[in-house]
Amino acid sequence: MSSLSTSITRTLLAGFMGLLAVAGCDDNTQTDVPPAPNLVPDGVFTIDFVDAEGFTLEDFTGLTLTVNRSEMSATLAGTPLEAPLTLSLEAVAESAWIRDCYTNGDNYSISEVFTLGAGPISIGELDMIDPALSTKCGGRVLLGTWTLDVLQEDPPVLGFVP
User: Which band of pLDDT confidence, cut at 50, 70 and 90, is reported for residue 45?
Assistant: First the structure.
């Protein structure tokens, strides 16, 4: 290859790399944009995940969670409850929402959190001291324990899907 061809190739390559950086393909420019939050959706959800010592998914077969954002309520119904259990959704400051599902570098998603009233709840034999509701990367709705402004990923955690 001639020196002229090499020079032209290098110039074109440098121009292309500069265009990529300006177009936002540089990882450093993406971390300055805050991610869109994953909100807890309205709807009826069915249990599909249990992480609680001594319990299995079969212990909660038929358990549903109904979220009504306009009424700021969440209702658990079905096995193992004898009667539906309605809880109030209490907003958690956005600054305390869960940051998870990390992707490239420092990129992550933010998941909305609600606490569910003051005090413990019992779902059959399972007790949750400070219950809270969130999402996992915008997918599954999680019912877990809120301790020291953090939704605990330690048991007990119940997961629900539409």
Answer: very high
Decide which of 18 and 70 is more confident.
70
Most distant CA pair in the chain, distance: 84
> From CA 60, how far away is CA 48, in angstroms rounded?
9
Q: How far is CA 26 from the centre of its chain?
A: 26
DSSP code, position 148: T
pLDDT at 15 over 70: no
- Tokens at residue 7, please? 């020079």
Q: What is the pLDDT of residue 23?
A: 35
Residue 104 CA to residue 108 CA, distance in Å, equals 8
Q: Minimal CA–CA distance to 68: which of 34, 102, 44, 84?
A: 44
Cβ atoms of 160 and 139 closer than 8 Å: no
